[in-house]
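Course assignment 3, question 2. Fill in each field.
Student: A.L.
Task: Predict the tertiary structure for the chain below.
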Amino acid sequence: MSIKKRLSALLIAVVLISSITILPVSAASDDEIDVSECEIYAQHIINDLMSTGCRRPYSGNYYNKSGDLADELLDVAYKYEKGEVTAVELQNKYDETKEFYENPWISPCYAEQTCYVAVHEQNYNNWYTDEQWNTFIEKRDNLLQALRVIDSDLEPAKWGSVYDYDYTVKQQKYISKCFYELLYIYNEMTCKDIIQGDVNRDGVVSVSDATLIQKYIVGEVNFTGAQELRAKVNVDSYSVSVKDATLIQKYIVGYTDVYFYTGGIVKNESDFATSLDNWEICSRW
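Answer field:
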């Protein structure tokens, strides 16, 4: 055999040996994944949702789906340890869970409910400043146009005229962006320097507030959304009722079991003062 042929054969042998040596190392590294990290992360999500998730403005189906993904991640981690799924499958489920949980967006059908409330909000008695009201109108219209991307004549309803599957993921994320911008200004309009029960905004809770609530109930006066939130001092109230006026009267005469929240704007994401679908006051107040 010539020297040239010997060298060629030797080179081929080296390549083959290298391939045999390298491939198992790569395969081994592909199979390595920290199962405990996946399990800890899934449990963190479950614990977080149990303590604060239901008060987040993106609750609804995204709150539920985050919990479902965490459960699925735990299940896949368990199957991986038993050898029933691959490391790639576990990694994919971890990535899917992390992406969704840490980058939530608003479901269009929930955003529509918020837009419906915003469209029907009025600045009665110039309760809001011009700057607040103009910003609110701008952000409300942005959300409305985002929802109208599939139907230019869409009129937001309290529920039922918008379906999530009509929108692409990109459109849903833009709707979410508009939603958060609207929620931020509304949160500031309604919750800055708030005294719960103070519906006439004179800085104190008095008989005047109870009387004003009674007038609202019988239709003699109108309330802005901010006034409605302040009036709902009864934690069981879904709408302003006689119970709220009665509770204020009990507060005035010194009942010790009555407590009203007094404070500034709620900025912590887990303690938003407004909820996703009906802008009810946060129960933690």
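Instructor remarks: The chain has three domains: 31-102, 108-191, 194-263. The first strand starts at residue 194 and ends at 195.
Grade: pending
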